[in-house]
Write a structure and sequence with these properties.
Layout lengths: L4 H24 L6 H8 L3 H7 L3 H5 L3 H14 L4 H17 L1 H12 L2 H23 L4 H27 L6 H5 L1
């Protein structure tokens, strides 16, 4: 499917904003970078920035919706239960390993700003909910409670594994750490 010129221009502008922001984040840090500076570097108006991103932090997490959607699709491919979660986690590990430099750079930026740490925790809740849904489906009562507890434990293990990988600069085999 080919995209029209308008869509191509939108994608190019979005990419320019992301590239400009990351250039400035690397140079000045997240907190010291302003939206006006990002807009100027991307050669767009401030108003145009807000057509593409509601906030500066949305630029940092520009890929979060797509990553979550990938995770949900991997969960759905595996059905329900622990096996589906395990397979989806290994799929995401491969995805992260393929984008190691980008993921590590994003992690370092997030760790540099309390605002970004808080936003990441909000995003994590969606991942946790996806795991819980895969484990519990339509169960109710005690089974649902056990599923929530198991999802929390699994997500804690995921975060610990990912943190270990990131502290190492992504040099360790992420799939191996998770197995």
């Amino acid at each position: 499917m080919t995209t029209g010129l308008r869509e191509q221009k939108k994608e190019r502008t979005r990419g320019d904003i992301i590239a400009a922001a990351w250039h400035l984040f690397r140079k000045k840090g997240y907190d010291a970078t302003t939206i006006d500076e990002i807009a100027a570097r991307a050669q767009i108006a401030r108003r145009t920035f807000f057509r593409y991103f509601p906030t500066k932090e949305a630029v940092v997490f520009h890929d979060a919706p797509a990553r979550l959607e990938l995770f949900r699709s991997l969960l759905a491919e595996g059905g329900h239960g622990f096996e589906a979660v395990s397979a989806a986690c290994l799929g995401i590990a491969r995805h992260y390993a393929e984008r190691r430099e980008e993921v590590v750079e994003q992690y370092l930026l997030i760790e540099s700003s309390p605002t970004l740490v808080v936003r990441e925790a909000e995003i994590d809740r969606d991942w946790l909910a996806a795991i819980e849904q895969s484990l519990t489906g339509s169960e109710t009562g005690d089974d649902r409670r056990r599923g929530r507890i198991l999802a929390g434990a699994i997500f804690g293990a995921i975060r610990a594994t990912l943190a270990e990988w990131l502290v190492d600069g992504g040099q360790t085999d992420l799939e191996g750490l998770g197995n």
